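Dear H.,

Thanks for agreeing to be a second pair of eyes. The structure we're designing against is below in token form, covering all 478 positions.
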């Protein structure tokens, strides 16, 4: 029996700074583990897929709810997946913040508004402090305990309003398995980073970017996963007491839900960048990244003229990252471009680079579709988010990764290990000399050839189609 909505969504006139942490239990885990440390010093086979439980008879379509929480790098892959599922005839809704309305509308999806705008909150001084200081993390943890309920209230209401057959959710969507059980639906987590299944083959990205040895790597995963589960469960329990919903018995927020057995989990990153660990169970499915289809794009005349006026430039951009070290990075970029005689396209975006000296060899813009620009550049310099890392390597472009936090140091080290770029240059330790040396390495023939080879592999993958096939098989064996 399908559940009907018990209440309508509340409208939100705004949200406190701390709300971002209420929407992000993984940030709670990061904060908690860093507090503790500082204080106390192969794929699913087709046969297996066909044997998975059936939700619908063949030939029918699903109501799908996507729960996408985070910045653009977290949300865009879910929009891409939702668009592909809608193209197959499914009824798709996506729960995400207001700042992604334009992207979601363009994909033809129903937008269910969440009360958090990560894009704006990432620029707030309190958020910047939480990324760079110990006291900031303590404050962030306190803010989170006060602000998380609105996000969970809204998520719960959206789930009952949509009444989906299947929920595909970011790990931050802590209520997804509870909603699935309540509604008699299924939930399938979608992981965008390689850190949610214990393995000895690489470390958990919140602990280290370089290998800690087999036992150390395995221990790092187990430690972070336990902290994530603890922090998320504590958040859900506090909300349960405040809002009094009937959630039933406690569930693992990092796992999916199936009434008939274990649900699969989707890992949306490429095996060409992070190979699938040999010890993973078959229900852990690594599909490849969810690349968006290349939409028609007409560049501004100024950008078109700049690209046509000389050899391919180097791209510099740091996505939605805050400009904590913006002036330092801007000075380093200007120095490297002059020293190496480069042409450059610089995307200022939401920050990351400030106070750029613009000359005839530099073109500054706000943003541009990576899938259009990257084939036209010689190398990419970026923050190391999963999406930008995949997109740069997709087009066979050598990468200089300048990480700030989270999974970025891990992906930066993966690029270096693969030979597709130099060792990562951390933003907090960046100098003009370090960036110049890194770019010189990236533009060498050997590194560029290696990146080109990886690009061939990435362009042969179709992570979106594989994920769609998986969830359709899981639902009704199509």
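And this is the sequence the design step returned. I haven't edited it by hand at all.
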């Amino acid at each position: 029996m399908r559940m009907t909505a018990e209440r309508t969504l509340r409208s939100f006139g705004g949200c406190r700074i701390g709300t971002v942490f209420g929407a992000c239990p993984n940030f709670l885990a990061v904060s908690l583990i860093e507090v503790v440390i500082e204080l106390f010093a192969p794929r699913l086979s087709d046969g297996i897929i066909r044997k998975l439980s059936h939700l619908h008879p063949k030939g029918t379509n699903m109501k799908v709810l996507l729960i996408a929480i985070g910045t653009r790098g977290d949300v865009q892959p879910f929009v891409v997946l939702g668009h592909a599922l809608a193209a197959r005839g499914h009824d798709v809704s996506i729960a995400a913040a207001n700042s992604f309305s334009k992207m979601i509308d363009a994909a033809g999806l129903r937008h269910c508004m969440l009360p958090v705008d990560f894009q704006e909150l990432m620029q707030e001084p309190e958020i910047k402090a939480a990324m760079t200081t110990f006291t900031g993390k303590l404050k962030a943890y306190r803010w989170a305990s006060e602000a998380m309920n609105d996000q969970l209230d809204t998520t719960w209401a959206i789930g009952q309003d949509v009444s989906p057959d299947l929920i595909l959710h970011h790990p931050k969507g802590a209520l997804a398995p509870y909603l699935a059980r309540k509604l008699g639906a299924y939930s399938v987590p979608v992981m965008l980073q390689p850190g949610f299944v214990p393995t000895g083959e690489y470390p958990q990205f919140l602990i280290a970017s370089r290998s800690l040895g087999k036992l150390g790597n395995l221990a790092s995963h187990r430690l972070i996963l336990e902290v994530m589960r603890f922090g998320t469960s504590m958040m859900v329990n506090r909300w349960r007491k405040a809002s009094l919903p009937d959630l039933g018995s406690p569930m693992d927020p990092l796992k999916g839900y199936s009434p008939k057995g274990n649900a699969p989990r989707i890992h949306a990153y490429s095996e060409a960048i992070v190979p699938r660990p040999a010890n993973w169970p078959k229900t852990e499915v690594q599909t490849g990244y969810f690349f968006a289809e290349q939409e028609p794009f007409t560049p501004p005349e100024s950008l078109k003229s700049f690209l046509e006026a000389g050899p391919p430039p180097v791209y510099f951009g740091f996505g939605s990252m805050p400009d904590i070290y913006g002036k330092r990075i801007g000075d380093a970029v200007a120095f490297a471009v002059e020293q190496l005689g480069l042409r450059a396209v610089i995307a200022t975006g939401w920050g990351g680079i400030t106070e750029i000296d613009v000359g005839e060899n530099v073109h500054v813009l706000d943003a541009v579709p990576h899938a259009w620009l990257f084939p036209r550049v010689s190398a990419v310099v970026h923050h190391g988010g999963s999406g930008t890392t995949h997109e740069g390597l997709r087009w066979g472009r050598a990468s200089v990764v300048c990480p700030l936090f989270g999974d970025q140091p891990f992906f930066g080290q993966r690029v270096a290990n693969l030979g597709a770029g130099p060792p990562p240059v951390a933003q907090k330790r960046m100098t003009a000399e370090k960036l110049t040396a890194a770019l010189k390495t990236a533009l060498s023939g050997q590194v560029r050839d290696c990146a080109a080879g990886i690009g061939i592999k990435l362009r042969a993958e179709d992570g979106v189609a594989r994920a769609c096939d998986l969830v359709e098989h899981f639902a009704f064996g199509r």
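Two observations from my side: The CA atoms of residues 379 and 398 lie 5 Å apart. The first helix runs from residue 19 to 22.

Warmly,
E.
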